[in-house]
């Protein structure tokens, strides 16, 4: 066997991977078209035809509905703004609880705070890293207004189970689908199984428009409320036929014509881009299934995983050494490995010190929900001990490079006795 690179041997992957790039000539031409029109945004924040945005926005939203098979798509300037609009639309108010997973990008848990909502952290399933529906049901209280499920790493959360819980309890299911474009559960697209889905179009996602996001829904009332919150809601409730003024204090969350024009071209490529991620992931998973101590990502049989991240679980007892030793050896082989994803979000200073909006602890003063360490043991274990990930969405990887990534993992796995000795 070859020597491990960490012990002075030759790395399995001899070069750094090219960064992922989804933008090409088509997007350049689309931007040029908008530049020549001189109209870089078509929105007007008052009642008129342009309340709904310019021609690129409208074409982009129509294409989005077509691709993701939903009735309404409301473009916004980020997933973060989209989640605020979604929570506003479903009527979250001061002291209302919103159930969120702790293992996600921070914005998922911060969005409720802007309406005085209190994030309630519920643990994840170890197999998918997504919200555990039984734990969600147990956490629902009379104050719960919504569940924010995250389709983490591109695998669907248990969405139909969560939707059933939400419907039974008369609350809303919102999907943070930033990482899951074209992921499916039982043939339905993620982002369309909850009452609202929120996508991200930031630079790091499968497709992007620089910054951007889209809210999807099949509910006309929610679509109107989100379109209102996006664009100075206070000016238009009467014209939109909205009699309930709750949360109709609007923002400017509007996307530009430039971003929408890019988005139209990106949408044409999304299936091919996602299929490329799947191809790499499937090849890695198939080649690594048999290694004791390493568990490649699980895909539920009724689901499509779109691999924002390819994440495996590390079994310290079976491997006989801490994850960190393994990760360092893998990194030395040229594998761009990360470990642990994010610290469970309740450990952020805002929750630990209970300071968010204003100086006096609002909205935490309205709740006695705990943010103590130990709250979500599965998420904590994934963060500290088990998760080892490859940010598959960040790189262009061909078959030969995929095989080199596989060889790197197999090599470190095979050399674990040497590693153990070194670290004894
Ligand atoms: C990227 C991401 C966000 C934030 O998206 P923006 O468009 O940058 O606001 C939110 N949630 C998850 C899970 C993400 O991956």
Describe the protein's architecture and organization.
With 424 residues, the chain is α/β, with parallel strands linked by helices. It has a domain of 245 residues: Aspartate Aminotransferase, domain 2 (3-Layer(aba) Sandwich). It contains 15 helices and 16 strands. The strands form four sheets. Strands 2-10-9-6-5-3-4 form a seven-stranded mixed β-sheet, with helices on both faces. Strand 3, helix 4 and strand 4 form a beta-alpha-beta unit. Helix 1 packs antiparallel against helix 9 and helix 2 packs parallel to helix 9. The mean pLDDT is 97.
Secondary structure elements and their pairing?
Layout: E1 18-19, H1 25-37, H2 55-68, E2 72-76, H3 79-89, E3 97-100, H4 106-110, E4 118-121, H5 133-139, E5 144-150, H6 159-169, E6 172-176, E7 184-185, E8 188-189, E9 196-200, E10 213-217, H7 220-230, H8 237-240, H9 257-288, E11 294-295, E12 303-304, E13 310-314, H10 316-319, H11 323-332, E14 337-339, H12 349-352, H13 377-386, E15 387-390, E16 395-396, H14 399-414, H15 416-423
Parallel strand pairs: 3-4, 3-5, 5-6, 6-9
Antiparallel strand pairs: 1-16, 2-10, 7-8, 7-12, 9-10, 11-13, 13-15, 14-15
């Amino acid at each position: 066997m070859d020597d491990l690179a960490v012990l002075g041997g030759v790395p399995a992957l001899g070069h750094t991977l090219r960064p992922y790039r989804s933008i090409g000539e088509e997007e350049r031409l689309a931007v040029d078209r908008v530049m020549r029109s001189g109209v870089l945004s078509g929105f007007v924040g008052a009642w008129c035809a342009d309340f709904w945005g310019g021609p690129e926005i409208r074409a982009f939203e129509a294409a989005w509905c077509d691709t993701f098979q939903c009735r309404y798509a409301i473009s916004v300037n980020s997933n973060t703004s989209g989640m605020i609009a979604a929570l506003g639309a479903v009527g979250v108010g001061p002291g209302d609880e919103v159930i969120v997973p702790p293992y996600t990008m921070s914005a998922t848990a911060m969005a409720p705070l802007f309406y005085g909502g209190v994030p309630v952290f519920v643990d994840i399933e170890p197999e998918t890293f997504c919200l555990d529906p039984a734990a969600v049901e147990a956490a629902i209280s009379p104050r719960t207004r919504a569940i924010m499920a995250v389709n983490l790493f591109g695998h669907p959360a248990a969405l139909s189970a969560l939707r059933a819980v939400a419907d039974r309890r008369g609350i809303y299911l919102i999907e943070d689908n930033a990482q899951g474009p074209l992921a499916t559960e039982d043939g339905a697209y993620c982002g369309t199984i909850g009452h609202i889905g929120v996508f991200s179009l930031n630079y790091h996602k499968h497709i992007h428009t620089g910054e951007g996001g889209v809210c999807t829904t099949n509910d006309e009332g929610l679509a109107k409320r989100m379109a209102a919150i996006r664009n100075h809601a206070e000016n238009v409730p009467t014209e939109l036929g909205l009699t309930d003024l709750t949360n109709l204090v609007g923002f400017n969350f509007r996307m530009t014509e430039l971003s929408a024009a890019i988005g139209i071209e990106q949408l044409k490529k999304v299936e091919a881009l996602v299929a490329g991620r799947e191809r790499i992931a499937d090849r890695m998973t198939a080649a690594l299934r048999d290694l004791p101590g390493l568990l490649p990502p699980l895909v539920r049989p009724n689901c499509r995983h779109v691999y924002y991240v390819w994440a495996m679980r590390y079994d310290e007892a079976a491997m006989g050494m801490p994850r960190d030793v393994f990760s360092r050896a893998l990194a030395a082989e040229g594998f761009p490995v990360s470990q642990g994803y994010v610290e469970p979000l309740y450990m952020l200073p805002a929750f630990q010190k209970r300071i968010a909006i204003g100086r006096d602890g609002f909205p935490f003063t309205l709740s006695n929900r705990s943010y103590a360490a130990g709250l979500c043991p599965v998420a904590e274990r994934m963060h500290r001990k088990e998760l080892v990930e490859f940010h598959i969405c960040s790189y262009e990887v061909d078959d030969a490079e995929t095989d080199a990534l596989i060889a790197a993992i197999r090599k470190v796995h095979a050399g674990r006795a040497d590693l153990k000795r070194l670290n004894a």
